[in-house]
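Hello,

Following up on my earlier ticket. Below are the two sequence lines again, exactly as submitted.
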Amino acid sequence: MLAALAGGVGAARFLAGLVQCVDPSEITVVGNTGDDEEFFGLHVSPDLDSITYTLAGASNTEQGWGLEGESFRTMHALTRYGEPNWFNLGDLDLATHIFRTRRMRGDGATLAEVTADVAAAWKLDLHLLPMTNDSVRTRITCARSDGTREVLAMQEWFVRERAEPAVLQVDFDGAGTARPAPGVLDALDRADTIVICPSNPIISIGPILAIPGVRDALVRRRDRVVAVCPIIDGAPVRGPADRLMAPLGVEVSPAGVARHYREFCATLVIDERDAAHAEAVRAAGVRPVVTETLMRSPQIAAELAQCTLAAVA
Amino acid sequence: MLAALAGGVGAARFLAGLVQCVDPSEITVVGNTGDDEEFFGLHVSPDLDSITYTLAGASNTEQGWGLEGESFRTMHALTRYGEPNWFNLGDLDLATHIFRTRRMRGDGATLAEVTADVAAAWKLDLHLLPMTNDSVRTRITCARSDGTREVLAMQEWFVRERAEPAVLQVDFDGAGTARPAPGVLDALDRADTIVICPSNPIISIGPILAIPGVRDALVRRRDRVVAVCPIIDGAPVRGPADRLMAPLGVEVSPAGVARHYREFCATLVIDERDAAHAEAVRAAGVRPVVTETLMRSPQIAAELAQCTLAAVA
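Thanks for your patience. The regenerated structure is below:
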């Protein structure tokens, strides 16, 4: 049995490699929902959907997010009514959000139940769980250039403001009283290996760890926990990890990630380009494993997954 | 001042003629919402939207419903999740339903408030009101071929079942306790002329009359009420009026409409093709006015509107 903590696109690519090495029915993915947001009254779960679409082979690889062959007619039409249009929701993608919202509001389904419905509709064979059925929202306190502070939702900061406002603080509203979704703690307790996918440590993995019980479960299983470093050559492969790590005192390097994860993670897979950082990772109390981690092809993703599992075998 | 009771497409075409003859700001339209339905958890108001889109010059005239240049990508994508697809909701049209639902659920707006928002977004100059802010749903009791009875929502009967099941009874669930939307009774009381648009007498005009106070307001103003007959040459121009009128004992003819409306309507505009029915209309106690009523062009619609107003001038 295998469990994985996952953010969005980077995690999705890694998981697409993982299902080539392991029977998918033995994999339980715990996905971040701190980035979930309501747009136009619809419940959007960006990370869960990135995983689903990618594993279904339906993601738009050129664009790096969303669905292949997507169009944006409904969203454009919504601007007539003064609705915000800074978060791109495609016509095909909207079907997922409309369905999710109807199931939750109309049928009273939990996010976990709908996530399973959506995964089944896309014929995923692994188990995809939201970290919680409760509302947890990542909020980013920023410094404006005029010296004022502003609290932004994660998507506001990242998409609308292009991750430009300087970050002072990150909070996961609601995490303190949230309960892990059914099956999350059980999957972590029973897993032979727990993989922390190559996702943003602060706002993708951070919210999952903030759900009461999750971090403790990892601490208990520390020897079985392996992380794939999302930082290569001093920068994130994709996304704003550096804009969040540095101001929060986490060095944008394999050693920074190792120190951030050391309490609950025994092994860190780092990129060949960062081989020189292996000693610093080891000095942080984490065992480094060096391999190719830039997933430029499904083949490389599968090899990375294989290497990651072998590291704690 | 002018008030109009309106169903969907037929009414919309008439109103498009009316605004060519009268200052739109003097017109208050009371629209049927008995056909409103939730699809995919979104509040759809078919008649109000038909009026808005038509008056905005954005309706799909070839298709006879919906918006010009429409596509159906989101609805097609929803079938992946097992959602019903018998009611066509286009990508552009969906924006209206998403906006309406968010305003009502998220902001607590009334249907009347959202209807005004939508009308303003399409730059309508007349006042468009739903008959009520409360939930009124037209329910059609049908006889199945195996002898059983079944109660269908109006859209289920008309669209999904193509108006084929024989009609036994029509009810307007919720009408008994519904209140007219703010402004409805006032508009009827103050109007110099009240027009009953060429709409289905049973399921388009019927629900409006079933809202407490509306029928009485018309009875009081009977001399100022003029209807445009939706039946030409023994059949409705469009829609299933005949499938509803006959089983409910309303003759599918100008005289049948006249007898159905006589208590609150002094004048009925009938088509030239039905000139021979003028005497039967008169015998029902309603004054017939004969003109061209088949609105094959905006020009004919304007002439019909002019004639309708002149009939009670």
